[in-house]
Amino acid sequence: MICFALYAAARATNRCYVSLLKPWGLTYPQYLVLVLLWTHRSLSVKDVAEHLKLDSGTTSPLIRRLEARGFLTKERSVDDERTVIVSMTESGTALRKELAHIPGCVAEATKLTLADSNSALSLLRNVATNLASAPAPENPPVERS
């Protein structure tokens, strides 16, 4: 069953990140927000949620915790007061060097060759795209006696 294999792989990956991020007191979702902002420097909360495929109910607490730790700031957009912009602080930017080893550690832990890793990444992206764009499946009618 592909679904269980995906579930098990996701749980194992999360365990790996939990162990690696523990010294910094970060969760994997918080780490993902940091990685995203290291790339983009500033994004709206909505864009963070879209990039990470999270809902606002999940994204806002992540951002709030990272802001409380001084890794990022939030401010209203000058163009649209309804939009909140999240930006990396110097402290958050400095953290990038401290955490630079993490992707390599996770890649090494998978014991996949580069070719297998690239192949798996391509397949997983296809699965995610296909499932995201597919209509929600319906259960077939059940005859009741």
From TrEMBL:
Keywords attached to this entry? Cytoplasm, DNA-binding, Transcription, Transcription regulation
Which Gene3D superfamilies does its entry note?
Answer: Winged helix-like DNA-binding domain superfamily/Winged helix DNA-binding domain
MF term (GO), any:
DNA-binding transcription factor activity
**Where, per UniProt, does this protein localize?**
Cytoplasm
SUPFAM superfamilies reported in the protein's UniProt record = Winged helix' DNA-binding domain
Q: Give any Gene Ontology cellular component.
A: cytoplasm
Coarse class of the protein's main subcellular location: cytoplasm
Domain HTH marR-type, residue spans:
1-133
Q: Name one GO biological process term.
A: response to stress
Give the protein's recorded name: Putative transcriptional regulato
Organism whose genome encodes this protein:
Paeniglutamicibacter gangotriensis Lz1y
